[in-house]
Every structure is written in structure tokens, then in C-alpha cells.
UniProtKB/TrEMBL annotation:
Species of origin: Lysobacter spongiicola DSM 21749
Keyword Cell inner membrane: no
Gene3D superfamilies for the chain: HPr-like
NCBIfam families hit by this protein: PTS_HPr_family
GO biological process, one term: phosphoenolpyruvate-dependent sugar phosphotransferase system
Compartmental location: Cytoplasm
Name the record gives this protein: Phosphocarrier protein
One Pfam assignment: PTS-HPr
This protein's GO CC annotations: cytoplasm
Annotated SUPFAM superfamilies: HPr-like
Domain HPr residues, every copy: 1-88
PROSITE patterns per UniProt: PTS_HPR_DOM (PS51350), PTS_HPR_HIS (PS00369), PTS_HPR_SER (PS00589)
Superkingdom classification of source: Bacteria
Length: 89
């Protein structure tokens, strides 16, 4: 299992478009991914689950990935967060 601390740094936070990008990215991996924020733990492959986090800009999020391709999935998710969900272009 891989755990990472991430910060939501895009201006609008985990809104619908950013959440859809995250879920779409994860759909290509077999590993199970979980996001934890504000005392809630959700399936990171679920748009509704991620939206329920209501994670705005600056929110600290813990990512947990477990499975056969966990390293690749964790790297891809980390990169997406670091790129601010490609919204600042």
C-alpha cells in the first residue's frame, strides 16, 4: 500500500471537472484508491464520493492506493494534483 499527502492547489478545488479528470485517470488502473480529507474517507474512483469531500483550494488530502499497479497509479494521481488538474493553462 502507498500513502501520500497531497494538497488541493487548483483555484476551484475538487469541483466537478477536476473530480471527473481524477476518476477518469484512475479508471485505467486496477488498484483501489482512497482519498481522506476532513474526516471523510471515499473511493477515489467515485465521482460522487470525491465530490462529497468538498475539498477546496488548500485542503490537505491523504491518498491511499493498494493493488497490483499501485505505484503507477499513485504517481499519476500525484502528477495530476501537482499540475493543478491542468486548469492553470
Amino acid at each position: 500500500m502507498i500513502e501520500r499527502e497531497l494538497t488541493v492547489s487548483n483555484r476551484l478545488g475538487l469541483h466537478a471537472r477536476a473530480t471527473a479528470k481524477l476518476v477518469q485517470l484512475l479508471s485505467g488502473y486496477r488498484s483501489h484508491a482512497t482519498l481522506v480529507a476532513k474526516g471523510r474517507e471515499v473511493n477515489a474512483k467515485s465521482i460522487m464520493g470525491v465530490m462529497l469531500l468538498a475539498a477546496g483550494q488548500g485542503t490537505q488530502v491523504k491518498l491511499r492506493v493498494e493493488g497490483e499497479d499501485e505505484e503507477a497509479a499513485a504517481e499519476a494521481i500525484t502528477a495530476l494534483f501537482e499540475r493543478r488538474f491542468d486548469e492553470d493553462q
